Each structure stands twice: as structure tokens, then as C-alpha cells.
Amino acid sequence: MNFQIRDAIASNVKGDSASEFRDTVQDAISRGDEHLLPGLGVFLEAWWKSSSTEEQEAFTQKLSKAYMN
């Protein structure tokens, strides 16, 4: 399958406001549908690439704490 998921997701949200992105993320999380996970992954990838080292470190620290048992 040669489907460009990144391009499709980017096309679907192009021009969205911060509020619309928040709604999209919250909706995907609240639904809990696994088919929405690739979209969240694409969002994470875009965020990661545009974030500073300090922002990435803060995120990974929070993520690590969220998965501590």
C-alpha cells in the first residue's frame, strides 16, 4: 500500500486554527479509536520537528512520568 498518510492528514488540517487543532486532538483522544492514532502521530512528528531541544526534553520527561508504574 503506497498511501501517503502524512500528506492526507496535512491536507485535511491545512489552515486550521489552534482552537481547531485542539478540538481535533481532543476528539481523537476521547473517541479512543485506534485508526485515529496515525493522525496523532503525524501531529506529534510535526510538533517535534518544530520544537526546541528544551521543549522536546520537557515533553519526553512528562511522557516518561506518564508511563511510570
TrEMBL record:
Subcellular location: Spore core
Keywords: Sporulation
InterPro entries noted in UniProt: SspI
Name this protein carries in UniProt: Small, acid-soluble spore protein I
Induction comment from the UniProt entry of this chain: Expressed only in the forespore compartment of sporulating cells.
Family as reported in the entry's similarity comment: Belongs to the SspI family.
Lineage: Bacteria, Bacillati, Bacillota, Bacilli, Bacillales
Keyword Iron: no
GO annotation, biological process: asexual sporulation; sporulation resulting in formation of a cellular spore
Gene name linked to the record: sspI
